[in-house]
Amino acid sequence: MRKNIFFGLIFILTFSMQAQNEELPYYQIPEYPEDFSPGNVVARMIDGLGFRYYWATEGLTPKDLEYKPSKDGRTIIETMRHICGMSEMIKNAPTATPNTGIDGLSDYSYEQLRKRTLENLKEASGLMNSKKAKDFDGFKVIFQRGEKQTAYPYWNIINGMLSDCIYHAGQITMMRRASGNPINPKVSVFNGRLRE
Question: Tell me: the pLDDT tens digits for 64-94?
Fold first, then answer.
């Protein structure tokens, strides 16, 4: 009887955790757009990042979060904070919203960082959908320090924050493997789904 209760609780817990994860964006990559407009291509790059980040950070343990490859390296949780900050900039660029920095990221829990990052990426992708080349003229990366603003074209998001986030998602994947908790082997980044 106790054995049945134990397995029942495990099933409920597992189902609950899976349902919770599926509520976050990028459990799987969205269907691809109908055309290759510049905005759709960038949105797809953001979606690819979202999918990779989702699975790179899914199911991390406290041991994983504190893992770092060397004395001077970042831990996984520090890398997640870094990605979260950049996801904010990726989200802000299509609306030319100034980046003033995010206070309190070090106070965010693993779950809060993960959720905020994934939601930022989903919003950024939505802002890019169907945009034409001329729309990119208004997209700006703006850094604001006090009253001073420095603006850069959207090109800097592509070679800067977007590429950097993809790079760091790969680092998390590598570090969690080194920590003893590799990503789900069914993840197919080519198809943007879990293999059956």
Answer: 999 999 999 999 999 999 999 999 999 999 9
> And the tokens for 30?
């969205």
DSSP string, 45-93: HHHHHHHHHHHHHTT--HHHHT--SSTTSPPHHHHHHHHHHHHHHHHHG
Give the mean pLDDT of 152-156: 97
Domains and CATH numbers, the chain: 2-194 (1.20.120.450)
Q: Is 189 exposed, middle or buried (0-12, 13-18, 19+ CB in 10 A)?
A: exposed
Residues 6+ positions from 102 with CB-CB distance below 8 Å: 84, 85, 88
Question: Which pair of structure tokens corresponds to residue 94?
Answer: 């299509």
